[in-house]
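User: Thanks for the earlier help. One more: Glyceraldehyde-3-phosphate dehydrogenase. Can you show the sequence and predicted structure together?

Assistant: Of course, both are below.
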Amino acid sequence: MARIRVAVNGFGTIGKRVAEAILKQPDMELVGVVKTKPDYVAKHAVSSGIPLYTLSDRLDAFREKNIPVEGSLEDLLEKVDVVVDATPGGVGKEYKPLYERFGVKAIFQGGEKPEVAEVSFNTLCNYEEALGKRSVRVVSCNTTGLLRSICSLSRIAKIKKVRATMVRRASDPKEVKRGPVNAIVPNPVKLPSHHALDVKTVLPTLDIVTTAVVVPTTLMHVHIVFAELEDQVSREDIVATFEQTPRILLADASLGLTSTADLVEYARDLGRKRYDIPELVIWLDSIAVLGREVMWMQAVHQESIVVPENIDAIRAVMEAAKSAEETIRITDETLGIMHGRIP
Ligand SMILES: NC(=O)C1=CN([C@@H]2O[C@H](COP(=O)(O)OP(=O)(O)OC[C@H]3O[C@@H](n4cnc5c(N)ncnc54)[C@H](O)[C@@H]3O)[C@@H](O)[C@H]2O)C=CC1
Ligand SMILES: O=C(OP(=O)(O)O)[C@H](O)COP(=O)(O)O
C-alpha cells in the first residue's frame, strides 16, 4: 500500500518532534516541513536530510542565507495527503482555508480553538470518531494527560466527576521571554481553568472542573487529580488498569523517582532524544482510594506527550488503522513508547 504523504507546517517544539516521529513510521512519508526563519534549526533540518520548505514570501531570505529550500508551502501542499499544522496557537486557523483549497487533510494542535476541526482527539478516548475526517485537533498537553488517565480509569469504573489542579510549567526550555522566574501565578485567578472545557471537547458528558497555577520550571507539568466513581473499586484494580494502559508509566517514589527532575534524569539515562517522555507518568505511591473517591498525581512532559497522538491522528484521517489498538501498536513500537512500571 502507498505510504501516507505528510507535511509539517511549523517546525518548533511540537513540529520538529512530530516530523521526526513521522520519519519512523513504516506507512508514512515525510514529504517536507515548513520553516519561516532561515536559522540554525533550518540548517540542522537540511543537514539531517529533512526536505525544507518555506512561505512563498520567505524564499529569498533562505537563499540569502544559503539554506536550500525545496519550494513554498503551496508547492508542498500539492504533494501531500495530510498536513500536521504545528504553528503557534491561533495561527493554524488562518491556514485552514488553504489546506482545504488544496484538498489536504489537516491535523491541528491544542492551541487552536476546538471549532478549527471536525473533532478534538485523544487516541485512548475517541480514536474512531476521527476516522476519515478532513480535520482533527489533537488536544493540548495537559488535556492529553488528563484524558489518558481518565479514559484508562473508565475501563473499570463509571466516573461520576473529576476535579483536578494543574501545576503548569512556566515555559518550554528554549523560551527566553516567559516567566515567572520567582512566583506562583494562579492561572487564571478567576476559576476554573480552561483545561476541563478542553477535556469536554473529547468527553462532552464528563463532570469535570479544573484549576491551574504556573510555577517557575521548564521540565514538566504536574496534575493533582480527584475522581469520584459510581462504584467502589479497589486500589489494586486501579493500579492494574493504569499499569496495563498504553502510554502510561507508573513511577515508584521508593526507587527515587520523587520529582519531575528525577523523571527527566531517567529519560536522560534511557538516552532519549531531548529527554522526551511521551508517556503520562503517574506516581504509584500517590494513588489512593477513599470509599468511592480516587486520587493520584501525574506528570506531563509538555514538549512530547502529544507526539504519538499526532501520529495516530494521521492514521485516523486516512483510515490507515481501524482501531486505537492497531495504531497504538505501530506508533508505540516505532517510537519506543513504554507502559507499566518504571524502570
Ligand atoms: N509547547 C508545548 O508545550 C505544547 C504546545 N502545543 C500546541 O502546539 C502548537 C505549536 O506549539 P509549539 O510547537 O510549542 O510552538 P513553537 O513556537 O515552538 O513552534 C511554532 C513554530 O511555527 C513557526 N511559525 C510561526 N508562524 C508561522 C506561520 N505563519 N507559518 C508557519 N510556521 C510558523 C515558528 O517559527 C515555530 O517554529 C500550539 O498550538 C501549542 O498550543 C501542544 C502541546 C504542548
Ligand atoms: O500547557 C500547555 O497547554 P495547556 O495548558 O492548554 O494544556 C502547552 O504546554 C502550551 O502551553 P502554553 O500556552 O503555556 O505555551
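User: Great, one quick takeaway?

Assistant: The first strand starts at residue 4 and ends at 9.
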